[in-house]
Amino acid sequence: MEREGGMWEGSGGCGREERRRGREGGLVSPGRSFFFFFFLEVLGLISRTSTLLPAIRVLLGQGRIWLDNLSCSGTEQSVTECASRGWGNSDCTHDEDAGVICKDQRLPGFSDSNVIEVEHHLQVEEVRIRPAVGWGRRPLPVTEGLVEVRLPDGWSQVCDKGWSAHNSHVVCGMLGFPSEKRVNAAFYRLLAQRQQHSFGLHGVACMGTEAHLSLCSLEFYRANDTARCPGGGPAVVSCVPGPLYAASSGQKKQQQSKPQGEARVRLKSGAHPGEGRVEVLKASTWGTVCDRKWDLHAASVVCRELGFGSAREALSGARMGQGMGAIHLSEVRCSGQELSLWKCPHKNITAEDCSHSQDAGVRCNLPYTGAETRIRLSGGRSQHEGRVEVQIGGPGPLRWGLICGDDWGTLEAMVACRQLGLGYANHGLQETWYWDSGNITEVVMSGVRCTGTELSLDQCAHHGTHTTCKRTGTRFTAGVICSETASDLLLHSALVQETAYIEDRPLHMLYCAAEENCLASSARSANWPYGHRRLLRFSSQIHNLGRADFRPKAGRHSWVWHECHGHYHSMDIFTHYDILTPNGTKVAEGHKASFCLEDTECQEDVSKRYECANFGEQGITVGCWDLYRHDIDCQWIDITDVKPGNYILQIVINPNFEVAESDFTNNAMKCNCKYDGHRIWVHNCHIGDAFSEEANRRFERYPGQTSNQII
């Protein structure tokens, strides 16, 4: 749900009944508005003084309208218990979507059932490290200095009497660092004698497993305490940054000296660094973790293992999207002292124990780098969109400038949105003439090319200080539209393996396919309509396991009608099909040109939204999949010219990154295949990032088959 004048996410409340009765306010009457206030009080977002919005003041929603004519008494625990016309039963349009403006704080005592939070009241809200010397001139992140806590009257130091390594471990974890190291105590003692200090905290005693300093035993100085920290000094910590942040803190050399094996834990589909669905490596295959008994201790072990600080949140209920494939662990019970999640007691999962709707996730504490202060958006209709402006400097004063729009795309926009702290990229725009640039007109960055994993745009390749733009002027500068949610497409690899076969199809049945370039180039010189083409056919089932519907980039006005197939095509290329040699050389290719996107089937509790027929809306709903059977046109690779041998079948979804997703690393699927000139064997199909590095190396060294036996 959006906080400022937004609509309820995934639904629209309808106010038509109130308007029919001519009641004041248009959308909701004073009497019926009690329901809306009650609903938001359940969410913990408002008090009775919050404001309702008539439909004319909110942006129109999309998709289904779930609720209409709701009536609550005020005693219900959830909006699902209120009387209504039933879920999805509505005669409203999106012109009548209900909306609210919420206060910026939740009501006291509210807890989100999908977030496992610290149960204790936080006594210390904010902690920082202040360098003892050179304050303001040290590179970020700051890794060593005095521990300071924010109290009502300002920042105060912590008395170091009884200070232990466990205390330092907790403080470093809160500030985004996985571990701590010893400090030069003599230096800081000498320095403390020459400085004035304001102590606000003493007697800190942590066990080292706490996720927050306030969970440790500690005492505050009272206002009338005159002698504070007698014989002691300010507590000092020195933290060790993780690999992602070591280079910026000057500790790259030290980090690289440590041997790095393949990680056995990873995070997937997070909008920000240090967050995502937890996946673990078992028997050379990645799988998820069930959220049963998942808590901050287990989440903190994951975060520190990956080079971040302690956990800020332990997420349950697949809050970071659902995984696909195996669920490896359940009922993980960590003390918080373990160096790896695999060291924690756990239960091996069985098929009946858990489902992917219970996948566990984390949000980790991160070091403050100040990256978000070097980028901003201007001219957009909201804080999530606009023309991208970056700050550059040196030599000379810092100044703001624009980015050339040449070659700017989804991957670059992903990095910009991540640096801004605004989640995923919805669109990367090369023209932004409709957004006013104000007085910023200088282009200071061009040739930006990102892989999509960078933390900031200055980590991407670019032209440096000498900018070059093919199209000049502020009209052709880069822009973004960011979103907190995104789709995530995965191919059902087992279905490809089960349905693959060869067909020799007569040319007179392939005119429509030839029109859409679904045949090899040699087909142009064939003796039409005589002869045939040899096709490798298979079914593909594409699931959307993200947190937003997958929608084509182009609007309806630019869709193309194809008479052969009798429907509108919303994307030029949605999937690439390739036959590769073991060294990666492409010997045959195909593509699903202009895919028609629709919901073929959905999970039990999800309704279909998209259908191609009758110029319907196209897309794939979260929790649904689009199935293309092996027997439809272009669902093949033309292998007429392929010689017998050992090959790799590769399928890539959304290959040109036209539509933003939360994770592009799982868009490719690979299979081993053996072709003897008459028959084909397809096996070992898997999503590109589903195997360990060693298993992928074995896959690429596949020697082929002998006597129909896979070796």
UniProtKB/TrEMBL annotation:
Cite the residue spans of the region called Disordered: 1-22, 248-271
Q: Locate the SRCR domain: which residues?
A: 61-103, 127-240, 265-365, 375-483
Reactions catalysed, as given in the entry:
N(6)-acetyl-L-lysyl-[protein] + O2 + H2O = acetamide + (S)-2-amino-6-oxohexanoyl-[protein] + H2O2; L-lysyl-[protein] + O2 + H2O = (S)-2-amino-6-oxohexanoyl-[protein] + H2O2 + NH4(+)
* Gene Ontology CC annotation, any one: cytoplasm
Record-linked Gene3D superfamilies: SRCR-like domain
Posttranslational mods: The lysine tyrosylquinone cross-link (LTQ) is generated by condensation of the epsilon-amino group of a lysine with a topaquinone produced by oxidation of tyrosine.
The UniProt GO MF terms for this protein read: copper ion binding; protein-lysine 6-oxidase activity
Q: Which UniProt keywords apply?
A: Copper, Cytoplasm, Disulfide bond, Glycoprotein, LTQ, Metal-binding, Nucleus, Oxidoreductase, Repeat, Secreted, Signal, TPQ
Q: Which cofactor does it need?
A: Cu cation
Q: Which SMART domains match?
A: SR (SM00202)
Cysteine pairs forming cystine bridges in this chain are: C72-C82, C206-C216, C290-C354, C303-C364, C334-C344, C450-C460
Keyword Glycoprotein in annotation? yes
Q: What does this protein do?
A: Mediates the post-translational oxidative deamination of lysine residues on target proteins leading to the formation of deaminated lysine (allysine).
- Tell me which family the UniProt entry assigns to this protein: Belongs to the lysyl oxidase family.
Name the UniProt record assigns to this protein = Lysyl oxidase homolog
